[in-house]
Amino acid sequence: MWHLSRFQPSEVIDLAVQIEEKGASFYQRLAVKVEQAEVKELLNFLAGEEEKHQKEFKELGRDLSFINPRETYEGEYFEYVENAVSTHMFANEDFLEEAVKKATGPKDVVKLAISFEKDTILFFHSFRSLVNKDKQEVIDKLIKEEEGHINKLAKILKEVG
Fold first, then answer.
1. Overall domain count for the chain
2. Residue 92 maps to which CATH number?
3. Which of 1, 44, 52 lies closest to 26 in space, CA to CA?
C-alpha cells in the first residue's frame, strides 16, 4: 500500500505527464482512423491540448510539496490515488490497443475519447487534494479544460450519432 512516507510529489507529476503524453499519442492515433473532417480536426486539437498539459504539469512540479489529506485510516487517500491511477485506461496498454482497434467509426472514436477525458478528470481530482491551495488553482484550470474537451466531444457525438 502507498503511504506518504514512500510517495514523492515527483511521482505524481511523472504520472500526470505520462497520461498527457499517452493522451496526445492516443488522439493522434484516433485522428488517423476517422475520415470526418470535423472529428479529425477535434482529435488533432485535443492532441495539442494534451501536449500543452504536459508542459503545465512539468511547471507545476518544479516546487511541489504535498499536504496530508484527511483520512479515516492511515494511507486511505494514497490507496485511492493508486487505484485511480491503476484503473486509468492508459494503465493497461493491451486494453488501450484493443480499444483503439475496435473503434471503427466516428461514434466509437468519440466515445473512446470521452472515456479518456473522464478518466483523466478523475485522476486530476485525486491529485488536487494532495497539493497546496496555490497549486490547486492550476489543477482546477486543467480540470476545466478537460471538462471543456468532454463538452466538445459530446457535441460531436450528437452530430455523428
1. 1
2. 1.20.1260.10
3. 44
